[in-house]
Amino acid sequence: MTILYELFGSMLYYIYNFVGDYGIAIILFSLIAKLILLPINIKQTKSMHETTRIQPEIQKIQKKYKDNPEKLNEETMKLYKEHSINPVGGCLPLLIQMPIIIGLYRVLQQPQIYVFGSQEVYDAIDKAFLWLPSLGQPDPLHILPILAAVTTYLYMSTSQTPGGNEQAQQMNQSMKIMSPLLIGFMAWTFPSGLALYWVIQNIFTFVQQIFMRSLFTQEGGK
Q1: DSSP assignment of 168-188, as one string?
Q2: Cβ–Cβ under 8 Å, residues 85 and 54
Q3: Residue 143's pLDDT is what?
Q4: Which of left, alpha, beta for 130 (phi over 0: left; psi -120 to 50: alpha)?
Q5: Domain ranges of the chain
Q6: Which residues are CB-neighbours of 196 under 8 A, at least 6 positions away?
Q7: Averaged over 28-32, what is the pLDDT?
Q8: What is the pTM for the complete model shown?
């Protein structure tokens, strides 16, 4: 993972040297990271959309074979095969993204190690950006933590797959509430630079999900 940290740190450093502002560098760095992950996210969203599209058929199978788990699993897998859906297609892209997300998080959490030298980091981070007196300290007005929670909720509202059994639906609803609260709580003490990165990522992902869902819906209607 150290190699990944150093790679992302070098990317952020080059962007900072180009624009001369650490806040703008983080925003550009966030957008570049999303573009790198875009092919994976498209595959994940397409898999989720296809799974949503066949939910009525899945529910019929669940109702018909509710007392026969083996037959239920067999018929469900047959349905997935007919529609060329990989049942773990939505999970694999997320697993691929995890090392990248962790690497980005670590770099922004410890820029003094992976991005700047010991003195240079203070010159870059301890400058005002928008309403923030320093990107190395938590947001004193707590605007970023609130935005992080709200944008996480919006992102999760567009990324969760509807349908499924009652237990899955309840879990989805719980995650949609708990995850934003957890992110908001963590961002309350995060360096502002890291919280800014999280907000930009969520906004970009939300817009991306809306666009791709609309595109896949149009394709499905043809």
Answers
A1: HHHHHHHHHHHHHHHHHHHHT
A2: yes
A3: 92
A4: left
A5: 2-221
A6: 23, 26, 27, 129, 132, 135, 144
A7: 86
A8: 0.70
Long-range own/partner contacts, residues 75-84 (CB < 8 A, 24 or more apart): 79/54, 83/50, 83/53, 83/54, 84/50
Tell which wins on pLDDT, 20 or 144.
144
3-state helix, strand, coil in the chain (%, to 5): 80, 0, 20
Instruction: Tell me if 45 sits within 8 A of 213, measured CB to CB.
Output: yes
Contacts of 11 (CB under 8 A, 6+ apart): 29, 32
Q: Do residues 153 and 176 make contact, with C-beta atoms less than 8 angstroms apart?
A: yes
> 179-207, pLDDT tens digit by residue?
888 888 888 888 888 888 888 888 888 88
**Residue 11: predicted pLDDT:** 86
Compute the mean pLDDT over every residue in the chain, rounded to the nearest whole number. 76
Q: How far apart are CA 79 and CA 59, in angstroms?
A: 12
State the Cα–Cα distance between residues 56 and 136, nearest whole angstrom: 50
3-state SS assignment for residue 137: coil
Residue 129's SS3 state is strand
Residues in contact with 57: Cβ distance below 8 Å, sequence separation at least 6, in sequence order: 79
